[in-house]
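re: ur question from yesterday

yeah so i grabbed the chain u mentioned. its 688 aa long if i counted rite. heres the sequnce exactly as i have it in my notes:
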Amino acid sequence: MTRIAIMKLSGFVFCATLMVVCINHSQALAQDWQATAGPYGGNVWTVAKTPEGTLLAGAENGVIYRSIDLGRTWEERASFFGGVRCFAATATHGIFVGGDRGYVYRSTDDGISWTAPVSGISTLGVYSIAADDSGYAFAGTADGFFVSTNHGLSWTRETTIQNNVASTLIYPGDSVFALSYAGSYFSSNHGATWANRSTTGGLCLTRNIDGVLYAGKSFGVVRSNDGGRTWVTVHNGLPAATVYAIEHDSLGNLFAAPYGDGIYRLPYQGSSWQKVGLGSNTAWSFVCIPPAQVFSATQRGAVFYSNDNGNSWSQRNAGVAGVSVWCFSNSTANIIYAGAYLDGVFRSTDQGSTWTSIGLVGTRIWAVEGLGDSLVFAVTDAGLYKTTNAGGTWTSNRSAAGAYNSLAVNTSGALFVNTGSGVARSTDGGTSWSDLPGVVRRSVYCDRTGRLFAFNSSGLQYSTDNGETWTERPFAVSMINIRCLAAFGNDLLLGRSGFGLARSTNLGLSWEEFGFPNSYIQSTVITSERKLFTGIHFGGVHLYESSTTGWRHISQGLPTQDVRSLTLNTVGQLLVALEGRKTYRTTNPVTAVHDDEPSQPTEFILFQNYPNPFNPTTRIEYSLPKTSRVSLKVFDVMGREVATLVDEIQDAGFKSVVFDASRLSSGVYFYRLTAGGFVETKKLILIR
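ran it thru and got these structure tokens back, copy pasting raw so excuse formatting
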């Protein structure tokens, strides 16, 4: 198995100017990458249907996804800088798309390809767009209202409408209705002139089968039976929340989406709203397809689908990869867990090739760790959660009194969580917790051998006895905004937000600045061959192999350089999580799969056995800084010797021995290492 250690303090700091800074510190090195299947989900702002029946989804990550099988599968067709906010489809002049950065693109081949931005449009966000087959198009932006008379080739600002237009409807003939945040406007001549209809404004608009206007706004929905001149509230059964999406189907049913409260339906000519799905999710957009199909673009989980007029809903997001994975964790040889921003926890059992959602959708996942196939822990913005059935159900495992931001599991199966004021430990699978004594620690990590690392204002501490005692290592470099730590043997690689990398080769006795000053380091990895990897916010993935090569940029083939997390799978491939994209991994392994030991250690250490509890074999590791006479023995609770594992002179280095307890009965045992004047004893548990 590849020997690695990857530890991460989750959190986030945003920066938009790091690409050039990071590349200047690193030469390029070609590296082949392959996309994985997921994780799928994320924030999709808008969904639309073209005249040919194709579905388009526009995501917060700036990607347009296209489906030709009613959302069963999606493919990426375009990527823009800034989220995709709105579509308008025509039969003769193509499809228009508008987005956060003020762009308007057009497709004339059913969404397969998109032309360059047109002229005259605002450079600020485009939040609504409408177009018809006569060549007229209308765009509501954060900088005013724009009109095109030549199917989007050029645009002019409409000075009559001073407010930002949130939604536009084009009636049959020449009439156009525009709804702004502060009022509504009407034109009877395709936008040549406009008249103010009402001071009632809103965020979204639809016109039902009877020609009645409905608008979603702050605190509910309003209706107009006279073309927008007067409005009345339609609130019965609807929560007092801002409605961001509203649409009607061919039967006259109305769908509305209050923020953070799922989807509500008002039956045709009904008087009371009923909640029909999506829990606490937020829907941003609807598409209704006769006779009973409804698609919704949502904040979490991407696209949802109903084939029974909204009575039941299911996800249709295969291929829509807008999830932002903030943390990885390898729990067993084949299982990788990923924690995402608002999209919950995902699980892969095939080296990261495919991913399955296992719950906690709607919460921010700061850290995730697994103990075997079913027991998983996640640090969220609501506290620590636990599942014992691989995500079937989650329960709160520790209150949110502390500012949790990191989680660690050592080789003995003990759990450690940073509480904001210290470190708490559980040795019984999260059933009970105890606060560890000592100085305040701001974060906690664990390496493959079971060593714990933590930080406070004075420096680094590490523990080899389940956190009972800590060895202090004062810092010689800035330790502000610590983000991540990788450890292997005596080598430590520390990542900081806004302060770059720092490195120690002697277990923290001394430190040096190690590249990318002012950069926001997201993740660090050290392999058994002493290869160093780092992922940088808006800076990509970089590799360091020696002082001769220095740092080399290896992520040129990825769709974005906004890296969130790195990990290695058990076949040696490097996985990278990108902001708002699917995960990628290197086509070939970047590290050999072997059990090579690290270089010579600097002190005697007896590590916790792994696994623990065990049946019937477990591995015991220890380090020798010099050639020593070594004795490693196992005793029962009465102090009787039950096994001698080592009794010889050994050279310096990291050592490993397998203890086979097949002939022993279940119970608690102790193993003792004696070497060069060093003596230490640890507990192990045999369970039959």
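noticed a couple things. The chain has three domains: 7-31+323-586, 42-315, 605-686. also The first helix runs from residue 18 to 23.
anyway ttyl
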